[in-house]
Amino acid sequence: MAETKYFDSYALSSLKEILAGDFENLLSAYRKDVCEHFDVILHHLKQDDRSGVLKSVHSLKGSSGNIGALAFSKICENFETSVKDNEDSSIEENSRLFFESKTPLLLEIDSLLETCC
User: Fold this and answer.
1) Mean pLDDT of 16-36
2) C-beta atoms surrounding 64 within 10 Å
3) What is the DSSP string of 12-78?
């Protein structure tokens, strides 16, 4: 399996072994979910709806952890914590890190989809 930045190789291997042929479907569904959550979170940030941000980033944190994207899950956790703690400077920094991770995360998912199936 190729080296990854956001995914834990051991977790991916285990999940792929357990799911066998369904792994590609799960990874594709996760990719779609990631895109939707990024859009929803951006919308909530523009509306200054921190409750909406929390709900969506919490969901994305959980699904990322479940699929083995542990490093990305940690980025989500840091963002979630800063929003919960209502720390504006921390929210700004963590949201920047969160949104900067979108393109490389999606590229990594695409690479995993190409190599796994």
Assistant:
1) 93
2) 25
3) HHHHHHHHGGGHHHHHHHHHHHHHHHHHHHHHHHHTT-HHHHHHHHHHHHHHHHHHT-HHHHHHHHH
Cα separation of 51 and 100, whole Å?
22
Q: Give per-residue pLDDT as tens, 67-103.
A: 999 999 999 999 999 999 988 889 999 999 999 999 9
Burial class (CB in 10 A: 0-12, 13-18, 19+), 84: middle
Q: Which two tokens stand for residue 36?
A: 């939707």
Q: Give the residue carrying structure tokens 């840091």.
A: 78
Whether the Cβ atoms of residue 108 and residue 5 lie closer than 8 Å to each other: yes
Q: How confident is the model at residue 3 (pLDDT cuts 50, 70, 90)?
A: low
Q: Which two tokens stand for residue 55?
A: 């709900």
